[in-house]
Structure formats: structure tokens, C-alpha cells
Amino acid sequence: MSRKNAMIAGLVTAAFTIAVFTYTLRPDGGSTLRKTSVPNPPQEKTIKKTALTQDVSSTDRLNRTDVSKHLRTMLSETDGKTPEDISAYAKQLQQGHGHIAMLMWIDFRTKQSSTFKSALPEGSDQENKQLLKYLNTAKTAIQRHQSYESPSFIIGNKKYYFTAQRDREGHYGVIALINQKILDRVAEHQLKNLRLIPYPKEGKYRVESVHADTLKELTVKTGHDNENASHYYENEIVVRFKNGHPTTGQLQTIAADIRSKEPRKLGYAYIFRSGKMNYSQLKAYFDHKWHPQYTEPHYMYLTNDTVGENTGAAVITPNDLLFSTYQWNLPAIETEQGWNLSKGSKEVIVAVVDTGVQANHPDLKGQLLAGYNAITNTSPPDDDVGHGTHVAGIIGALTNNEEGVAGISWYNKILPVKALDNSGAGTTYSVAEGIIWAADKGAKVINLSLGNYADSQFLHDAIKYAYDRDVVVVSAAGNDNTERPGYPAAYPEVLAVAATSANGEKASFSNYGDYIDVAAPGESIASTYPDNQYAALSGTSMASPHVAALAGLVRSLNPALTNKEVMALMTSNAVDLGEPGQDKYYGWGQVDIYKTLQAAGGGGVPLQLYPQHVGRQLKTLRQSLEHGY
Hints:
Belongs to the peptidase S8 family. By secondary structure, this protein is α/β, with parallel strands linked by helices. Helix content is 36%, strand content 18%.
């Protein structure tokens, strides 16, 4: 037998042996059988309303905790300082935290007080009387060396509360009036995010709603109707031509025929906007005259917001203010043990294609790279919704900094890409452009907490583009409690994520189906929010970044792994929560950070991935033989 043939035989034998060995020894993942029921539409609406109320309540509590910490810090850092220093500190604090409507500083030794932003809000006589009552109660409490928090109260159409702290020595006290506009913002956000209302509203963008399968016109009257609906621009069409790209002359002919300006081009596809034709007319025109490879609507994509025991590794408990009380989600997936194996690496970039990210949030300081705005192309990717900032914080909020929340990754850099506008909606073009831009800029993981029910070849091309460049693409399944496949989550190149609750069951709103790969926590997840605040949100949008962050940790620990191998590790090491093996509610189960990182190893090829590794060696050897190397 020749040396080359012996090598081939040896590798084939090794591949077969290792495959059998791996299958035989594969752990069951701590399988726990759970019976999962799917609520009907009225039940679903009730449950979603409860989730919304829970999110608002949790946001209220964690922001009260955050404000109290800032007041205690102010008392500590201004002890013994001059009135000018105290004034400067108060001004800086209020500039960075616009919800602090008023600060009152009291020196109990001199009986002097200073008030910053001293104009109190004015309402009705009854409202003003209530405000003064709570203010006086706050003063009385700190005079007695007690901290104080008032209930929420209404002035005009805004909600406020008072909070007060006194230093340990009893020399100083501080009272703050807090504007709770974040609660209304979270409520409005979650009404759309959990699809409790029709979203987006038809008419704003000349948008049509259609059945995702038939493209027949559909009227979305309730939030539940969204499960059958996809939204697209009625006067636009996406076209990919068979013979590459049309000539300048052909584009001029099209522009004259359909009365359009220069089309937008991305990859192989073009988007035409007509001044006189709707989508049906545009499709008939292109199919008849140009015989393209495909045409499809220009879809809109919307935000998709809404445990076995491991032993043997020390638990790392971060000192972040809100971690112990509010971040149930990180211990649920064994994050603290996982940090013993990997805390991430600045060399591995995780892109967040979303509504943008607040660049100067104190809990994201130093974590963000210069990103991209696919909506305007010229502006920075600032977040005017809150969704992207929340997603980014789940992945990489500063950990162990005594501030706010802990991110899953300590060191992976986040690449913010704004592909959704200030309503939380984006288009096929902007999302595809964001994906391609992130892949070209070196992202090794892309999180897509967004979706639609229409299968777009244009978007799929962009997904394939990233996948072919070894990117791990992770996407939220959707929040309509439906088995209908959502995209991009259902594409085979994407890791589809469902949401679980704190008790390890399917979240009531979470989509499900045979395309689900894994599940992750998605109920009342605490994370960063615009205006230097924090919010608790529910949704598969919140589940997806848990998985994206895990992919970042795996790729940081073992850079030799391909995207396919990283995805296989996360699914094969998930904690099985449903029917044994893969099921439609949990996929392969809820991700387990510790087990997955254990399996990933530190540099070699994990045993369970050795068959694929041998396969790649065989392919390389075969190519060498064919070329006579």
C-alpha cells in the first residue's frame, strides 16, 4: 500500500471510530421532560399583558435601586467639599441622568440647603399638594436619619417619585425628584415588541400587510394578527437579474417605464421605487419584460423583544449593583461558572444589528467599536428606540464595575449597526446592508433580534454572505406564540433562539417550531437602556443576545473552531428541557455557558467535533492529491 493510500485509509478509519465513539459517549444534557402547552389567543393576550406589567414593575424597581446608589455615591464623594464643588457634582450628575428632575442638598450642621434644577413640576392644586406632601415626608425621614422613597405620583401627565438619602455621619442629606418617563417608554416599547398592538401602523411608510405565505392582502386589526402578517413597501420591489447586473442603458429604460429614480443596489440585488406602480404591477412588469432570477417585496423587519446543575468550578459573583437582585438570567445558564473558562476577548467582535446603541452609556464605556448607520449612512449608529442598547448590555455591559448590570462577556467588543429606525422597524435592504457591513468589518458573531414571516431571498443572500465568511449568525424567533417560521431565524445558516422563563419553561410569547435550535432566558431581562438608565424587557430579542454572547466566549476560548462547529457545540451542550433531543419549543434545550465552554476546550479540537475535523483534513488531503502536491 502506498504512503498516500495508507494516510487516506488511516484518516477514514479514524473518522469512523471517532464518530461512533462520540455518539456512544454523548451526554444526555441533563434531560428534563417538560410538558409545554400553547395558550390560545385570549390567554396569550392576558399573559402578554402580565409580562408587560412585570417588565414595567421590574424597570421601576431596578431604576430606584440605581438612583439610590447614585445618591449614596454623591454623599460620599462630596463629603467636606465646597458648595461650588457640590454644585458642579450635582450638575454633572443631572446632565448624565436626565430623569433626575431635581436635587436638594442639605447640610444639617449649618441648616443650609441648596436646590439644583429647583423648578418643581406644576399640576392641579390636588397634584401640587400631593407633591409637597411627599417632599416634606422625605425631609422628615432624613432628619430622622432614615432613607426614603415615595410612591409614584402624577403631575400633569408625567409620573414622578421622591427618594432621599443621608450620609453615615449624619452631616448631609440629599433628596431627588425622579421623572419616571422610562416606565411609559418601556410600556410603549413592549406593546409593540410583544405584538399587543398592530405594528407597524399601516400608512406611515406606504406599507402593506400581507399573508406571509400567499402575499394576499391582510388587515392587521389586533396584535395577534401579526403571526400571519408580513409588511412591505407597496411601491417598491427587490429584483435580482439572471445575467448579473443590468447596463446603464437598461437601468435608464426601467426608470422611464416605472417612473423611478436610481435604484439602491446591495450585493446582487436592486431595490426599485416606483412613482406610479404598486408591488403587483411592478412584479408583473419585471417578470414580463426582464425575466429576473427573482423578485420579491421590500419587507420590513421588526424588533423581537419580548436548569441543570454543574459542579466543580468556582462561582464568580460580580459586584454590579443590579446583578444579585435582578439578573436571574445569568445564573440560570451557568454564566458565573463559565467565567472561570472564558470572559471573552477583544479580538472577537460581536455585531448588534438593531436600533443602534447609546455610545456614552456608563455601563458600556469602552465596550463599543465605531459602528454604522444603515438608515442614514452618514450619522452615527445612535439608539433612538432603546432596543439595541438593551441587547448590547446583555452581551457586554461592563462587569464587576459596581455599576448597573453585568454583561455575559467581559471583553468582547460590540460593533453597533443601526438597521432599524426610530419606530423599531427596518427594511430588507437596511438589515441586509447591516449584516454585510458587519461581516466585512470583521464581526465573528452577529446578533439579529428582529424578524418577519416572509422568506426573502435578498435577506437570505446576505445571511449566506456572512455565513460563508465564518460568522456565527444568531437570531430571535419572534414573539407571536406561533409555529410559523420567522426569518431570518428559520434560515439553516442561522441559530434560531426561543425564549424561556425563570422556571425554565417556554415563555408564553415565544414562537416555536422545528427550526428552533436553542432557548435562552427572555422574561424581564435587566439591561442597559438609553439616558444612562436600565430597563427590564421581555422577548426573544432578549434571549438571542445570550446565545450571541456565548458564541463570542466560545470563539474567544478556541479561535480554531469554525462557525458551524461553534453552533454545534452550543446545541449539543444545551440543557434538554422538552422532549428528549430536539423539540419545537426549546430546540436542543436551554444554552449552558459552563458546559459549552468546557466542551470548547482551550485550543485543540473538542472530541465531539473531531469527525468534522477529520473530514476537513480528508478534504484538504484529497485536494492535495488531485493537484499533485
